[in-house]
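hiii so um. not sure if this is the right channel but i have a protein structure encoded as tokens and i wanna go backwards to a sequence. like what aa goes where. can anyone help
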């Protein structure tokens, strides 16, 4: 990678910056705290984490503060923890969208879709475990047999119809979606999900949230 004060490639910078940011967040350090410890500016920390500066010496200062070896950090598979997350079928855990705080749905509903779809006023959701630690993407499976309660939260949401046909309400709008179609909307807008009148129940949706 050349001398400490030299420059290095774009891919190495991006990999190092992304992994350094992940470790900083895991250690609970703010950008200001890290810049003070590394004796560099906050702007330099931001540039390092985005892979936008080519000075290897700056990455080295950040890595040293975080207790990481820079040369090992940019090697494949050497990140602190796995760089991916997987959800297997055995990881399924079903809740009710409107009453999430009440905990899991009853045991028979965990494995039997017909039982889930027969629960009164329930909107079953399966929070997928394929979420990165400190990541912003939050994927969820929804099974819709009746209109859901209207929701509103920060960020963006992408909804993809896996099975059946659905109507997604966003504000005053009602968007009809067939299997294989999708919609992305600002999730602060009041929104709801419902099956299309002509659809076989339940309708299955993939909802992917990115919170602000």
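sure thing!! here u go:
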């Amino acid at each position: 990678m050349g001398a400490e004060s030299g420059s290095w490639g774009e891919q190495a910078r991006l990999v190092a910056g992304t992994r350094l940011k992940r470790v900083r967040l895991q250690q609970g350090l703010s950008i200001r705290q890290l810049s003070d410890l590394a004796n560099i500016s906050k702007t330099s920390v931001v540039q390092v984490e985005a892979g936008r500066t080519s000075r290897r010496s700056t990455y080295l200062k950040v890595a040293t503060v975080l207790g990481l070896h820079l040369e090992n950090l940019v090697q494949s598979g050497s990140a602190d923890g796995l760089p991916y997350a997987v959800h297997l079928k055995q990881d399924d855990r079903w809740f009710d969208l409107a009453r999430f705080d009440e905990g899991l749905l009853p045991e028979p509903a965990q494995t039997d879709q017909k039982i889930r779809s027969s629960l009164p006023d329930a909107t079953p959701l399966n929070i997928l475990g394929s979420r990165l630690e400190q990541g912003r993407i939050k994927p969820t499976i929804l099974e819709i047999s009746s209109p859901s309660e209207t929701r509103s939260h920060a960020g963006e949401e992408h909804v993809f119809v896996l099975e059946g046909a659905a109507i997604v309400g966003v504000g005053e709008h009602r968007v009809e979606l067939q299997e294989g179609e999708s919609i992305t909307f600002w999730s602060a807008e009041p929104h709801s999900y419902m099956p299309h009148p002509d659809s076989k129940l339940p309708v299955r949706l993939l909802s992917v949230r990115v919170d602000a």
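oh and The first strand starts at residue 94 and ends at 96.
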